[in-house]
Amino acid sequence: MGSGKITILVVDDDVDVVWGIGKCLTRSGFSVTTCPDGAEAIEILKTRSFDVVVTDILMPRLNGIELINWVRENRPSIRVVVMTGVGSPSLRQLTMAKGAILYLEKPVDPVFLIEVLSSTVKDSSFWGTVDEIDILDYVQLMLLTGKQVVLEVRSRDGARGVLFIRNGAICHAECGTLDGEEAVYCCMGFEGGSFSNLPWYEPDRVSINKPGEFLLIEAARKRDEMKDCDCSVKPETKQW
Questions:
Q1: Does residue 53 contact residue 78 with C-beta atoms inside 8 Å?
Q2: pLDDT at residue 8 in the model
Q3: Sheet of strand 102-105, all strands in order from the earlier edge strand to the far edge
Q4: What b/e readout covers 168-194, taking b as 16+ CB neighbours within 10 angstroms?
């Protein structure tokens, strides 16, 4: 990207979304171009270079999946961020498998998007709420930017979990009496609460060896299943 501004192409047929995100990104120092659908985006990409494409999925003429395919085949150096109002674990899995670096469900928090694009989140000072920023998206950011951090997650009811994130991977997790992969899903299943970055310290052991993206997709699937069956984590039993 050099020393100049990061160049971003925002693609969405929703005028309000384009205007809002474009305005926030421009104010934050990015060079922003916008267009209403994938077909027009391809015409722009044929003649201009961008660092990032931020795209919706459902659009007229040519959808976001087709746009991702074109970018991967013709402009593989461009990073793609997906934002959608019709999210699902299967769509997350599909877009990530096709090469998107981040998947966000609308309404997208512009502050969080700016953090993703600029990678300026500080290791030891960030604090957020699960209500305002999806914990899945925040963990994905930590993995994407290769952070080394202990992420503490607390539910509204007082349940607590910790994720040990090192070099773009979750190497260990604890949540109540659970540890390893199931503890990851427990933390991701909290309905509201808060999370904060703690200074790094080595876990007692490495309990997770699976790719971070696999864990995020599985966590999203489990969370959707829990919503469908109207069940929840009980903090007193500390079980998923």
A1: yes
A2: 94
A3: 31-35, 7-11, 52-55, 79-84, 102-105
A4: ebbbbbbbbebbbbbbbbbbbbbeebb
Residues 134, 49: Cα–Cα separation, whole Å: 31
- CA torsion through residues 200, 168, 3, 40, sign: negative
When mean pLDDT is compared across 90-104, 138-152, 203-217, 218-232, the lowest value belongs to 218-232
Distance in angstroms (rounded) separating the CA atoms of residues 12 and 213: 25
The DSSP element (H or E) to which 136 belongs, if any, is helix 135-144
What span, in angstroms and rounded, lies between the C-alpha atoms of 93 and 12?
21
Neighbour tally for 95: CB within 10 Å = 23
Which residue is associated with the tokens 């699976």?
210
| Nearest Cα residue to 137 out of 95, 101, 172 | 101
What is the Cα–Cα distance from 239 to 63, expressed in whole angstroms?
40
In this prediction the pTM is 0.57
